[in-house]
Design a protein that fits this description.
6 helices, about 15% strand, five-stranded mixed sheet, alpha/beta, about 190 residues, 5 strands, EC 3.1.26.4, nuclease, endonuclease
Length: about 190
């Protein structure tokens, strides 16, 4: 059972990202502040939820939370500053956009850079422990998936509607056949070396 918050029930923001391991498209982060009373039996780490459950949770999180924000950092920036820094930048940008300033930040994973003077804590597998991080993981994933569905219309041969830019066999075969697009991350190893 996920706990509603980690450290403090007053304006604690959970943040997480989606798309770190992808070959194409942005890395997307979300930041969510939930009310102390928030409870949802379905909510969990977005990777453990079906597409339908994530889509079901998205409007619930958005309507029931105190504040939320989502930010994309695109492939040019990822190539320029590396994926770890881009992931942290996306989280910072999402937190920056919150209408309610947080008092404490909980981050999924083990790497983060201080944001302003707000205390933070990194929590390994935090999206499976705390509702505010799980909620952020769901929003990051659903917003990124929606964005990749739009890119799919422009370049259907890579099947981003299905693989969302992750390095599937099909995606790598399409890169071999068609080359790369402006949405691919050029700093990543896009096809394995023979």
């Amino acid at each position: 059972m996920l706990k509603p918050y980690h450290h403090t029930p007053i304006n604690e923001v959970g943040t997480d990202e989606a798309g770190r391991g992808c070959l194409a498209g942005p890395v997307t982060a979300a930041a969510v502040i939930l009310p102390k009373s928030f409870n949802n039996a379905i909510l969990n780490d977005s990777k453990l939820l079906s597409h339908n459950k994530r889509d079901l949770l998205k409007p619930i999180i958005e309507s029931d939370c105190i504040a939320y924000a989502v930010s994309h950092v695109f492939q040019e920036e990822i190539d320029s500053i590396n994926i770890l820094n881009a992931s942290i930048l996306a989280m910072h940008q999402a937190i920056e956009q919150l209408k309610t300033p947080p008092k404490f930040i909980v981050v999924d994973g083990n790497r983060f850079k201080p944001f302003k003077d707000i205390p933070h804590e990194c929590i390994i597998k935090g999206d499976g422990k705390y509702m505010n991080i799980a909620a952020a993981s769901v929003l990051a994933k659903t917003y990124r998936d929606a964005y990749m569905n739009v890119l799919h219309e422009e370049f259907p041969m890579y099947n981003w509607k299905k693989n969302k830019g992750y390095p599937t066999k099909e995606h790598r075969a399409a890169i071999k056949k068609y080359g790369i697009t402006k949405y691919h991350r050029k700093s990543f190893r896009l096809i394995p070396e023979e």
